[in-house]
Amino acid sequence: MSVIEMKNVVKRWGKNTVLKSVDFEADVSEIVGIIGHNGSGKTVLMKCICGFITPDSGEITVSGKRLGKDIDIPKNIGLIIEAPGFLPNFSGFGNLWQLAKIRGKISKDDVRSTMKTVGLNPNDKKHVGKFSLGMRQRLGIAQAIMENPDILILDEPMNGLDKDGIEEIRELLLKLKNDGKTIIIASHNSVDIDVLCDKVFEIDKGTLTVIR
């Protein structure tokens, strides 16, 4: 069953066509990879799915609801797009709890449990401004998954992680897939794509092609 579907999606910035008649599908319990060079259109495609960018033409449906018609922004998506932004003078837990309070869907214990899942100590008082890149990335993944969304959209989720961290997050993503999540990842790491993805698209100058 298609959870995300794009039909003939076109997005232009001035005279530059960033997405050219894009067709895309992602199903339940599936990890879909998107590969492409910087500036190829990966991030724009992801932002369109999230409702952050409105395409000039075409249709995008998420969980059976058409963006711009039934809903403006899907509520069941967890995401990392570009570098996660956090409050530098708060701890990791403090940052996630501030975000969790916005929707009120989860408890402090849920936040603590999620942090442990991604290899962070929820009792660590260190401010995020002093986190390493890998720790910030783990916190970003925790933020994406903490409210148990049906869909995850992750742009370079392994960025900054060491070898052990990469293996841990791969295992986590495969578990989430087996739990019924739909996951879209963009990665420059061909091993991540080979190990994780059920199908793979390549985007080049706005044109999306199925390669596996």
Order of strands across the widest beta sheet? 6-7-8-3-9-10
H/E topology pattern = EEEHEEEHHHEHEHEE
Q: What is the second-level CATH architecture of the largest domain?
A: 3-Layer(aba) Sandwich
Radius of gyration: 17 Å
Q: Supply the CATH superfamily name of the largest domain.
A: P-loop containing nucleotide triphosphate hydrolases
List unreliable stretches of 5+ residues.
none
The coarse silhouette is globular
Tally of separate helices:
6
Secondary structural class: alpha/beta
What proportion of the residues form beta strands (DSSP E)? 25-35%
Provide the residue-averaged pLDDT. 95
Number of strands: 10
CATH class of the largest domain: Alpha Beta
Oligomeric state as shown: single chain
**Proportion in helices:** 25-40%
User: How many structural domains are formed by the residues?
Assistant: 2
Could you tell me the CATH topology label of the largest domain: Rossmann fold
Distance between the termini: 18 Å
Q: How is the main sheet built?
A: 6 strands, mixed
Describe the structure.
With 212 residues, the chain is of the alpha/beta class. The protein folds into two domains: 1-76 and 151-212, Rossmann fold; 87-148, no CATH class. The protein contains six helices and ten strands; from the N terminus they run βββαβββαααβαβαββ. The chain has helices at 42-50, 92-103, 108-117, 133-145, 163-178, 190-196; strands at 2-13, 16-27, 30-35, 57-62, 65-66, 77-80, 151-155, 182-186, 199-204, 207-210. The strands form two sheets. The protein has a six-stranded mixed beta sheet. The protein has a four-stranded antiparallel beta sheet with strand order 2-1-4-5, with helices on one face. A hairpin with a 2-residue loop joins β9 (199-204) and β10 (207-210). The longest helix is centred in the C-terminal third of the chain and has 16 residues, at 163-178. The radius of gyration is 17 Å and the shape is globular.
